[in-house]
Amino acid sequence: MRRYSVFAIAREAMRGGKGWEQQWSSPEPKSEYDVIIIGAGGHGLATAYYLAKEHGITNVAVLEKGWLGGGNTGRNTTIIRSNYLYDESAGIYDHAVKLWEGLSQDLNYNVMYSARGVMMLAHNVHDVQVLKRHVHANRLNGIDNEWLTPEEAKKYCPPLNISQTARYPVVGAALQRRGGTARHDAVAWGYARAASDRGVHIIQNCEVTGIRRSPTGAVTGVETTQGFIGAKKIGVVAAGHTSVLMNMAGVRMPLESYPLQALVSEPVKPAFPCVVMSNTVHAYISQSDKGELVIGAGTDQYTSYSQTGGLHIINHTLDAICEMFPIFTRMKMMRSWGGIVDVTPDRSPILAKTPVSGLYVNCGWGTGGFKATPGSGNVFAYTIARDEPHRINAPFTLDRFRTGRLIDEAAAAAVAH
Ligand SMILES: Cc1cc2nc3c(=O)[nH]c(=O)nc-3n(C[C@H](O)[C@H](O)[C@H](O)COP(=O)(O)OP(=O)(O)OC[C@H]3O[C@@H](n4cnc5c(N)ncnc54)[C@H](O)[C@@H]3O)c2cc1C
């Protein structure tokens, strides 16, 4: 595949862009693959890419029931950070941040990673204690995180209202400067192009409807809307639909699926320099390169597979945004949408072998898995290739819900975006 470069852009500009090739090929499925990945979101595509690049396994298909990147990967608010409390989480999320830093060069595709800083606001004594605990824990793990006074927070993000008469006054903030955003579509497209380039088959409009097992219990392949496709190993990377797929193999998952919503405003000139999150009022905001304010809300309180979500949830979020940033009270909102997120009891992911031979699962990223995309794909590929976990994902087993060895980011963070 042709590499992207300034010279290629100049050449194509001269000939009306007629020489650009398709970014990835769309082959007919083969009768059998060494590895089938179910789900062409960022995590599934990244897994396929690293299987090919780092483990030399190229007889791989990624099966997608809809279009590539059309799940949560294309629906999220793209916040990237690694300032999680526990050592295990810090390990996997910071592995991802390190890969984000060189990802555009690695994929030869501009994923627009922008380390503009993620600031998490404290509104009361409890928030201050929790966020300072994060700052100290992160520093012990070699991860940047610093404490700001309200005045320092306003200097970093001028639209922020730090009036102490607000209903939820800002009393401090934790800032991770290496945190930021990336362009979600570009991440999916970049991984797809690079994986396809190494021989991976990406098959869209191919829904998996069954997982076939041999009499000994090992997987043998998948039933799909395009017929049966054999596989020696299967990786389920289907986010909100993980439990549906794992049921097909007879594995019951400790997951609940909820709608999570986001919305964008009309585009305006650059006005918002960073990412701001408030767990207490439950809102988070950044500005996209197109100029839209990108605003994230909370999950619905009930489980559902509807990709919409309740109106009162985004109303509540906008109340909070208007109070924290009065400058935006007259902005018009353009679109809102939802995605189905898969939530574990401890709000930490599962990247593991399963009790079924040849079946692996990568799920439970809930409301916060976009940031982990490169790291998750990287260690999940290792797990599939070697049939054992990488040291980074070794703690994220399915078994922890039986042994009780939880990684309780739920209690630690309250929200995991
Ligand atoms: C509104 C919203 C905001 C969010 N904000 C953030 C954020 O700011 N930062 C952050 O880090 N994370 C965020 N997240 C979470 C993040 O989007 C997800 O954790 C991450 O994108 C999951 O990626 P994935 O590749 O595992 O899943 P997906 O991108 O959902 O990919 C799974 C794919 O599997 C496919 N699939 C399902 N069933 C089948 C089947 N039977 N056969 C074939 N294919 C199937 C789906 O169509 C889908 O394309 C947000 C999520 C939402 C919904």
In words, what does this structure look like?
This protein is an alpha/beta fold and 417 residues long. It has 11 helices and 18 strands. It has a domain at 114-180 and 256-343: D-Amino Acid Oxidase, subunit A, domain 2 (D-Amino Acid Oxidase, Chain A, domain 2), CATH 3.30.9. The chain has helices spanning 6-14, 42-55, 87-107, 125-140, 150-156, 184-197, 242-248, 311-324, 373-386, 400-403, 409-413; strands at 32-38, 60-63, 79-80, 118-122, 146-148, 172-176, 180-181, 201-203, 208-213, 219-224, 227-236, 256-267, 275-278, 283-287, 292-299, 333-343, 350-353, 359-363. A hairpin with a 2-residue loop joins strand 10 (219-224) and strand 11 (227-236). The longest helix is centred in the N-terminal third of the chain and has 21 residues, at 87-107. It is globular, with a radius of gyration of 21 Å. 50% of the residues are buried. Residues 38-44, 63-66, 70-73, 75-79, 207-208, 237-239, 241, 245, 260-262, 296, 339, 341, 365, 367-371, 417 line the site of flavin-adenine dinucleotide.
